[in-house]
Design brief:
- The structure holds 2 protein chains of 2 kinds.
- Chain A is mainly α.
- Chain A has one domain (47-324): ABC transporter involved in vitamin B12 uptake, BtuC, CATH 1.10.3470.
- In chain A, 73% of the residues lie in helices and 1% in strands.
- Chain A contains 14 helices and 2 strands, in the order ααααααβαααααβααα.
- In chain A, strands 1-2 form a two-stranded antiparallel ribbon.
- Chain B is α/β, with parallel strands linked by helices.
- Chain B has 4 domains: 23-151 and 203-299, 3-Layer(aba) Sandwich (Rossmann fold); 152-202, no CATH class; 316-390 and 475-561, Rossmann fold (3-Layer(aba) Sandwich), CATH 3.40.50.300; 398-474, no CATH class.
- Chain B has 19 helices and 20 strands.
- In chain B, a hairpin with a 2-residue loop joins β19 and β20.
- In chain B, 55% of the residues are buried.
- The interface between A and B is large, with 53 and 84 residues.
Chain lengths: 346, 561
């Protein structure tokens, strides 16, 4: 092989090389985009750079952030959970119905989380044991969970939750626009981030998403992993349901209808490949914030919601398609760097 | 008996050591010692294409169908093809050989319009061939049969043949009948029995390749390039493919054939072009050369011992399998292997050999029987359990089972060790790099760095990554399925040396191989399977090609030792 760059003993890339790769990577690009949107909006949109704006922005994206954490792992493992918003609704309804019947709010919330785990386990069972594709399974449970939610409360709404709990959910750190609940998110995000990026389980998530068979040959219990990812997704969705109930003071069967698509969109904007195996948690968090900030800025600028949806859709397509186009444009010039043995297996 | 890949042709045994029984003795004059007697220079009367020789149509031979002159392909700083030369005449099967990374595949991709050359010239029937896309190349008359064809699974064979130019009948509607008839004719002329109406889904790889060839014939391709077509075929299928290739040659087509199997190259080709490091080394008549010469030209040195074997005294039985049965796949399989011993498993494709090791390793379940490691029963609880007991399996299908082609070298190597490398549940890249570096150094993996994506390495280097991935677990039993499939001759010898060294270190090795010389050359004992049953267990001294082949084909059933 006539390749001057190929060393006989490949070494770990230098810290500088690795840093360069991170800085040229997708996470860096999406972060730069977020910074740009925030800067431009701060300069051009009145009231954007205020604590109030950020306060509501965080409260609005909080459920998406919560659900995006397990969704990121699922999509990287080449699975998907579309039942999350329905589980959120079911959880909300359970909290409302139980509270209405005199259960303490904390116990009602705990029951909702357990039901979330059970619902997630149902998804996991159908996918890993029965062997159905997760897309089909979770479209089914999307209807199932929503049906249960609406069946329990009908078109009623339960309101009148204790103000202490509601105040806690909407409290913010003194002097800032940052809601207290964001602290919970930071803890959870760190936990999911560590699992995905710095544990054996995380390595298996990527390996399973790229090639489940090879992952199995390498001793990975792919089925078990997938099952628990669905359970985590159910629990986080239920937690988002508890939040939703208290944040809006209303438990309804149709809470958060369609939110699953916002979550999946944010995960894709955040750089996760829908085909699995690629992506990172920081990118997804930035992706959620990017969409939230953009929509918030456009709303403040009095742009109609139809236009906002169009802009969000274009952003999704651009961020998903963009990297591919860039890679193609760089084309042959870049290929040698990543393909030292272009002649393989010749 | 059909000639299949077990057949040892001239020179195949060239590099086996002198104490080798069997193959060497039946093929004299091909040992490494004889090599210096052969002219070392690639040029000779039979080599019209020396590096310095000007190319062009000769007055005596027919004008070449394909002429490649000084072809260069750079990928940025990487030179994949430095100066390729190739001349293929009509009515000729021309073998293209070289180690992995020699540039064969790059040359094929240039011919096929997948890449465009940096410099140089390609002429097809005297006219410049400058395909910008695979479609251009096809229209110009170049057809490429890849190792794994990509047919449309839901379309019929006939529709696949005529894809992109469906035949129409009355009213401009697609005429299935016309396509069916035409395909039937084409299949018949090639002597191939495939139903034109059946869907492509479920066709064997061999049949899919034949459909691709029919497609090429229907397009009146002038040049047919077959890029390692036999790597995934069984013996009978190889014979059928060769029969079709010969027919095409006799009808005047120019055929380029790429293979790592010398028996096939010598059985099929008229001339051989050797490439090394992206450059043309030599072109010679097949009849006027031998394997040793070709190998030396490929690697640029003599490969002295293809099958190194140190004398060893096997220790205690480490792995013992009794009465292993999986309905319809294998039945009553008994085997054992001792520490420091290499047990070779021979058998035709489909004999159940891979399935047995898969079951032992816990990938598939078995219905009855026991697997013992060090006398203790190994429960059926998946590969993780097997790994805990010191087993490792290097699987047969590298790209699907052995490797994560989209992950980096480091991540691949460390995947099997991910739990052992973690401290307090945390796994750092640093730990992965350390272990990957150590094993990449031991096995001399060639890659840009440890972040290089495994799928971009050459076949031999990919196999080294798979080996590193499993050897890093320090197994006591190494199950290895087709250790050298699709890798170049230099790496092959390295893998063999490695297996010998592992056995010397006391590892119990179970090696499955379709290449008989490999089984005979490397094993202390040879176990032969036929239709899911063990038909022979032979000591090294008793294992000769005839005995193994007859046991593998079920013609003789010798006593199980």
């Amino acid at each position: 092989m006539t390749v001057d760059q190929v060393r006989t003993v490949p070494a770990a890339p230098s810290t500088r090389t690795r840093l360069t790769r991170v800085l040229l990577g997708r996470d860096a690009a999406i972060t730069a985009l977020l910074v740009a949107v925030v800067l431009v909006a701060s300069l051009t949109v009145d009231n954007f750079s205020t604590a109030t704006t950020w306060y509501f922005l965080f409260l609005d994206v909080f459920p998406i952030l919560l659900i995006a954490l397990p969704m990121t792992l699922l999509v990287i493992a080449a699975q998907i959970d579309l039942s999350v918003a329905s589980m959120l609704g079911l959880s909300s309804v359970l909290v409302g119905a139980l509270y209405e019947n005199g259960w303490p709010l904390a116990v009602a919330a705990l029951v909702a989380l357990v039901v979330g785990a059970v619902g997630g386990a149902l998804n996991g069972f159908l996918v890993t044991v029965v062997g159905l594709p997760s897309l089909a399974v979770t479209i089914g449970t999307l209807a199932l969970f929503r049906g249960l939610a609406v069946g329990i409360l009908g078109t009623r709404a339960v309101t009148g939750f204790p103000s202490g709990a509601q105040d806690l959910v909407s409290a913010h750190f003194a002097g800032t626009g940052i809601p207290v609940v964001m602290a919970l998110f930071v803890v959870l995000a760190l936990a999911f981030g560590v699992v995905l990026h710095a544990t054996p389980t995380g390595r298996l998530v990527y390996a399973a998403g790229l090639n489940a068979e090879a992952a199995r040959f390498a001793g990975g219990r792919v089925g078990r992993l997938t099952f628990w990812l669905f359970v985590a997704s159910g629990v986080m969705s239920a937690l988002a349901g508890v939040y939703w109930t208290l944040r809006y003071g209303s438990a309804r069967g149709d809470n958060a209808v369609g939110l699953e698509l916002s979550v999946v969109a944010a995960v894709l904007v955040g750089g996760v490949s829908i085909f699995g195996g690629r992506g990172a948690l920081p990118g997804v968090v930035v992706g959620v914030l990017l969409i939230g900030a953009l929509r918030s800025a456009l709303r403040l600028a009095d742009v109609s919601s139809d236009v906002i949806n169009v802009v969000t859709g274009v952003l999704l397509i651009a961020t998903v398609v963009g990297p591919g186009l860039v890679a193609r444009a760089r084309g042959a010039a870049r290929r040698p760097g990543t393909r030292p043995s272009a002649g393989a297996p010749g | 008996m059909v000639v299949n890949r077990f057949t040892i042709l001239k020179g195949e045994a060239m590099a086996e050591s002198d104490d080798e029984p069997g193959p060497t003795s039946s093929h004299p004059g091909a040992s490494a010692d004889a090599a210096p007697a052969t002219p070392a220079a690639p040029l000779g009367p039979a080599a019209p294409l020396g590096p310095a020789a000007p190319l062009g149509p000769s007055t005596r031979t027919p004008a070449p169908t394909l002429v490649v002159r000084g072809l260069v392909k750079h990928f940025g700083p990487v030179v994949a093809l430095a100066r390729a030369e190739l001349e293929v005449r009509p009515g000729e099967i021309h073998a293209l050989v070289g180690e992995n990374g020699a540039g064969k595949s790059t040359l094929v991709k240039l011919l096929a319009g997948v890449y465009q050359p940096t410099a140089g010239q390609m002429l097809l029937d005297g006219a410049p061939l400058e395909p910008r896309t695979p479609a251009d190349a096809r229209d110009a008359g170049v057809a490429v049969i890849y190792q794994e064809p990509t047919l449309f699974p839901d379309l019929s064979v006939a529709e696949n043949v005529f894809m992109g130019r469906l035949l129409t009948g009355r009213g401009g509607l697609v005429s299935r009948k016309a396509m069916r008839e035409r395909t039937r004719e084409l299949l018949a002329t090639l002597g191939v029995e495939i139903d034109p109406d059946r869907p492509a889904l479920g066709l064997s790889i061999a049949d899919q390749q034949l459909v691709e060839i029919v497609k090429a014939v229907s397009l009146d391709a002038k040049l047919l390039v077959m890029d390692e077509p036999t790597a995934a075929l069984s013996g009978v299928e190889v014979d059928r493919l060769f029969a079709v290739a010969r027919q095409l040659r006799d009808r005047g087509a120019a055929v380029v054939f790429i293979s790592h199997r010398f028996d096939e190259i010598f059985a099929l080709s008229d001339r051989i072009t050797v490439m090394r490091d992206g450059e043309h080394v030599s072109t010679q008549d097949t009849a006027a050369t031998d394997t040793a010469t070709i190998v030396r030209q490929m690697v640029g040195r003599a490969v002295d011992t293809m099958f190194p074997r140190t004398e060893r005294t096997p220790g205690a039985v480490v792995l013992e399998v009794q009465g292993l049965t999986r309905a319809g796949t294998f039945e009553g399989v008994d085997l054992h292997v001792r520490a420091g011993e290499i047990l070779g498993i021979a058998g035709l494709v489909g004999s159940g050999r891979s399935e047995v090791v898969r079951a032992v390793f816990g990938i598939d379940r078995y219905d009855s029987g026991t697997v013992r490691v060090d006398g203790r029963v190994l429960a059926q609880d998946g590969p993780e359990q097997a790994m805990r007991h010191g087993l490792a399996l290097v699987p047969e299908d590298r790209r699907r089972q052995g490797l994560h082609t989209d992950l980096s070298v480091a991540r691949n190597v460390a995947l099997t060790l991910r739990r052992r490398l973690s401290r307090g549940g945390i796994l750092t890249s640093g730990a992965e790099y350390r272990v990957a570096h150590e094993w990449a150094a031991t096995l001399q993996v060639k890659a840009r760095d440890l972040d290089a994506v495994a799928g971009t390495l050459s076949g031999g280097n990919q196999q080294k990554v798979v080996l590193a991935k499993w050897l890093s677990t320090t197994p006591r039993v190494l199950l290895i399925d087709e250790p050298t499939r699709g890798i170049d001759v230099g790496t092959k010898a390295e893998v063999h040396r490695l297996l010998d060294r592992l056995a010397g270190d006391g590892v119990a090795v179970v090696m499955i191989s379709s290449e008989l010389p490999e089984v005979l050359g490397m094993s202390d004992r040879v176990l032969v399977m036929h239709e899911g049953r063990v038909t022979a267990v032979l000591d090294r001294a008793d294992a000769d090609p005839e005995t193994v082949m007859s046991a593998a084909t079920g013609t003789v059933r010798s006593a199980v030792a």
